[in-house]
Amino acid sequence: MTGNHTSKTITRRRALAVTGGTVAAGGLAVAGYQSAFADAMMSTAEATATTATTSTADTCMTLMTSVTEGPYYLDGALVRKNITEGKSGVPLTLRLTVVDATDGCTPVPGAAVEIWHCDAWGYYSGYTTANPGGSAPAESEDGSTADDATYLRGYQIANANGVVKFETVFPGWYTPRTCHIHVKVHTGGEKEDGTYEGGKVNHTGQFFFDDEIAQEVFTLEPYSRHTGSYTTLDDDMVYDGGGAASGLLTLEAVKKANPARGYKGLLTLGIDPDAENTGAGGGEGGAGGGEGGTPPSGEPPADAPTPTDSATATESAS
Hints:
Largest sheet: 6 strands, mixed
Oligomer: single chain
Shape: globular
Helix content: under 10%
């Protein structure tokens, strides 16, 4: 199933296929919380989240699929809550809770959650000339002051309840992927020179978005200026249909009658703090693979777009 998208604007910048997850491989996700989390009630929501994770051990032990980091990963993301750098789009606030799946889903304070995703037209920082498929304006036309090398990438460090918060924009899409956000959970390192250094990666995964919500967002400015065929969840090469356990976010509209006002996304990430899962390597599909994953060096595969070429983001896209 696919959907077609129409046209509209943005501001300008400066710069997996699925594998079977195991606790040893490092990660899982459990169901997102169903209630809204109004900004005025953040502390209450955090307390509720902590209680919920510790009371759903059976759900917590449902393992999430493990995925590659994909060809658009870059080292050195900044520790910051707001990762937009002026990129325009529908506002998205993420509240993620990191828990220890090997210890009754207790919070993991100090865990570093790293996320990265494309902008409203399907472009990643560091790879701004990679064609997102369909018909989209050049990334350089967006009019923002975002840094071409850093926008829509960042870390947050979990608080005492294992909670991190990000302020970003709803991701766009690119061929052949559905709408998604990449994530890594790190432990054992520390903040240094504005980024996160040391430790190890316990989980590498992706977050996904309800098709109906995503396709409604893509009719809005600036998303609608990127036209073409959008890949739904059922047809995505990574999402395996497992709901929250496979990374599907619980989304709450800030104002139901007006999706342009934004969304709040919730998910709990269960990890094994003793395991390591960098997401590096992998093939082009099937067990043990990813959709054009990266080699251990973190460099894109030979057939993936680079910051200086104009290759298309098609089968190598992640």
